[in-house]
Amino acid sequence: MLTPPTVAVIGGGQLARMMQESAIALGINLRALVEADDGSTGLVTVDKAAGSPSDLDAIRALIDGADVLTFEHEHIPAQTMEEAARVVSVQPPASALLYAQDKLAMRERLTSMGIPCPAWARVDNAAELERFGAAIGWPLIVKTPRGGYDGHGVALAHSPADVESWWGGGPLLAEALVPFTGEVAALLARTPSGQIASWPVASTVQHDGVCAEVTAPAVGIRPETATEARRIGERIAAELGVTGVLAVEMFVVGEGANEHVLVNELAMRPHNTGHWTI
């Protein structure tokens, strides 16, 4: 009798719980790192380890005997990634996950690839933020490079004074405020050997930085725009070496033949724009 593969996942929230449902259907044993037995994933997962992503003892217990390690969120310490990679296949690898963890690294890499993005700049102090705002016009969107999600770590700034109260030092990502007409997400899965399967591009509606509505296939955009979004997602997955699920959130800008997309953010995990696929 064949032993089912064991996929270890860091995270015990709703996304890991959804992964458990799919794992059962695929005959895969999913082992989750949970912070509470009565949490979202802990309630439906027998095979689990208790602890946080920074608890190396818990990580060792999680990956013991596992075939692969993956994640339900990007907030994974570098030391955890290094420790796990010595023992088990980590997918997506740290070299790819970096671009979902660090928004500045993501912007630099995508820009070097010629991927369309909003106008942006790294700013290390108020004077640099002032210069960028003067160059492209206020207001701006200002983001912390790491740690933000669902609207956290993102602020609308009309001047440097708007970020002084929470800017704790270090670089920020400053971006132009995009006059978008809609938002879409390209969702795909990629194998380590490079095979890619894409779901239909979906249109999304955000409320207070949180995805509130998803329609797939996308509505209100040209078929050519949806094709462009899908191709951008597939190119990003291939060139960054992403494995597993990738979601690419994009702004839709322009009208008619000038309609196109700008990449907003990346997520290398199951994503709220893909709940409709299960």
TrEMBL record:
Keywords: ATP-binding, Ligase, Nucleotide-binding, Purine biosynthesis. This is 5-(Carboxyamino)imidazole ribonucleotide synthase. Residues 107-275 form the ATP-grasp domain. GO terms for molecular function: 5-(carboxyamino)imidazole ribonucleotide synthase activity; ATP binding; metal ion binding. GO terms for biological process: purine nucleotide biosynthetic process. SUPFAM superfamilies: Glutathione synthetase ATP-binding domain-like, PreATP-grasp domain. InterPro entries: ATP-grasp (IPR011761), ATP-grasp_carboxylate-amine (IPR003135), ATP_grasp_subdomain_1 (IPR013815), PreATP-grasp_dom_sf (IPR016185), PurT/PurK_preATP-grasp (IPR054350). NCBIfam families: PRK06019.1-6. Pathway: Purine metabolism. One of its GO terms (cellular component) is cytosol. Its EC number is 6.3.4.18.
